Amino acid sequence: MKKTEADMRVRPIGVIRSPFTEVAGMPIQPVFAKEAEGAAEVFPEFREGLRDIEGFERVWLVYWFHRAGEPKLIVKPFRDDRERGLFATRAPCRPNTIGLSAVRLLGVSRDGLRIAGVDVLDGTPLLDIKPYVPDYDAFPKSRSGWLDNPLRRTTSDNRFDT
Amino acid sequence: MKKTEADMRVRPIGVIRSPFTEVAGMPIQPVFAKEAEGAAEVFPEFREGLRDIEGFERVWLVYWFHRAGEPKLIVKPFRDDRERGLFATRAPCRPNTIGLSAVRLLGVSRDGLRIAGVDVLDGTPLLDIKPYVPDYDAFPKSRSGWLDNPLRRTTSDNRFDT
Predict the structure, then answer these.
(1) Could you tell me if A71 and A25 are in contact, meaning their C-beta atoms sit under 8 angstroms apart?
(2) Which residue out of B81, B137, B154 would a mutagenesis test of the A interface target, given it has the greatest number of A Cβ atoms within 10 Å?
């Protein structure tokens, strides 16, 4: 059975816990949040799916930017002083407010995952967890456009907050 | 304004075009689909957001696994002969059927992006495009659990198709 657009609804499988309760001052990406520890709490009905995950050093958290404002197609990113096309940035104000972070997996706990390098707001709805697989995901030499020469800013302000 | 669960709906921003019209025989990940060229068609109302993207060598496609069956928490992945926890796999039958592929950006066309290394079905709804940024995304030495010794299978069969 083909799914239709009417079925395109997401639901939280858990909640991300982090030290960051305000948007301003948060690290912009996990790489700037190396020390920040937190958790990916997974609701009981989904925990069986965590089996075998402890062998992975990193996992992708797929989450819902629940504090993102209205979508904008042109944004001034945190790490630049020029406006850029939204899809050339990781800004949260997207048509689909889906966020993506590769975090370090510290261990599995009773209620989910203990993680480090968390760059998301405390209370963020978690949509999915995927294993980080270097064969699929790691392209260390990939050219990265305007981000090859970014501003040295590593924390956010509240420009995209609602 | 905080968004509520009632707002957690996604909508396509475009459609992925690929040579793959059937699930069986598809490459499992972009790394096994190096030669497969395709397109990320972006609907006209979102194209302004593609500005500046041509400087990136790769982009993340975030998409909706529109042919995924019912969610399963334990699956037998393509690359293993043992059952694994869903969140330790990239199988499509997830609570939120969101897929993720790092594809090579060949260029920007009138109606979206020309891409290579496409491992998704033709007609897949596109939810988001994000720039691939090695600083955020590339961890080439990351340990990858059971996938450190996977089966040598590189194409899928139809076990997760509906």
Answers:
(1) no
(2) B137
Q: In this structure, are residues B103 and A67 in contact, taking their beta carbons and an 8 Å threshold?
A: no
Query: Count of CB atoms within 10 A of residue B11's CB?
Result: 12
Residue with tokens 């909508």: B11
ipTM metric: 0.89
- Averaged pLDDT score across all residues of chain A: 89
* Contacts B13 to A, Cβ<8 Å: 95-96
Is B91 exposed, middle or buried (CB count within 10 Å of its CB: 0-12, 13-18, 19+)? buried
Residue closest to B91 by CA, chosen among B100, B35, A56, A46: B100
The residue of B82, B87, B100, B139 whose CB has the most chain A CBs within 10 angstroms, and thus the best one to mutate to test that interface, is: B87
SS3 per residue for chain A:
CCCCHHHCECCCCEEEECCCCCCCCCECCHHHCCCCEEEEEECHHHHHHHCCHHHECEEEEEEECCCECCCCCEECCCCCCCCEEHHHCCCCCCCCCEEEEEEEEEEEECCEEEEECCCCCCCEEEEEEEECCHHHHCCCCCCEHHHHCCCCCCECCCCCEC
- pLDDT-based confidence at residue A1 (cuts at 50, 70, 90): very low
Structure tokens that stand for B93 in this block: 């039958």
pTM listed for this prediction: 0.90
Question: Tokens at residue B148, please?
Answer: 């450190």
Please name the member of A10, A84, A90 whose beta carbon is closest to the beta carbon of B8. A10
- Please report the domains of chain B, with CATH numbers, ordered by start residue: 9-133 (2.40.30.70)
pLDDT in tens, A21-66: 887 777 766 666 667 899 999 999 999 999 999 999 999 999 999 9
